[in-house]
Amino acid sequence: xxxxxxxxxxxxxxxxxxxxxxxxxxxxxxxxxxxxxxxxxxxxxxxxxxxxxxxxxxxxxxxxxxxxxxxxxxxxxxxxxxxxxxxx
Length: 88
What we know:
- This protein is of the alpha+beta class.
- The chain has helices spanning 50-58, 62-66, 72-87; strands spanning 5-7, 14-16, 20-25, 31-34, 42-47.
- Strands 4-3-5 form a 3-stranded antiparallel β-sheet. A two-stranded antiparallel ribbon has the order 1-2.
- α1 packs antiparallel against α3 (72-87).
- The chain is globular.
């Protein structure tokens, strides 16, 4: 059986899809972490570790992936969501 892989936007390493976090941009334009991997919208993947999340936020890497200018407030909210999920 073939395991689906995706590439992390920060470290650019392909990994099994289940091991990565999905960031989704909904049809309404909202961006959020998708812990189920099933939310509707355009998705980008990032490793589930502090270094990759910090790199993506610091370098605003989702601007390239979603081909739009994403505000710093959205990056900060994504970072907070990640930290909140990690603590649980």
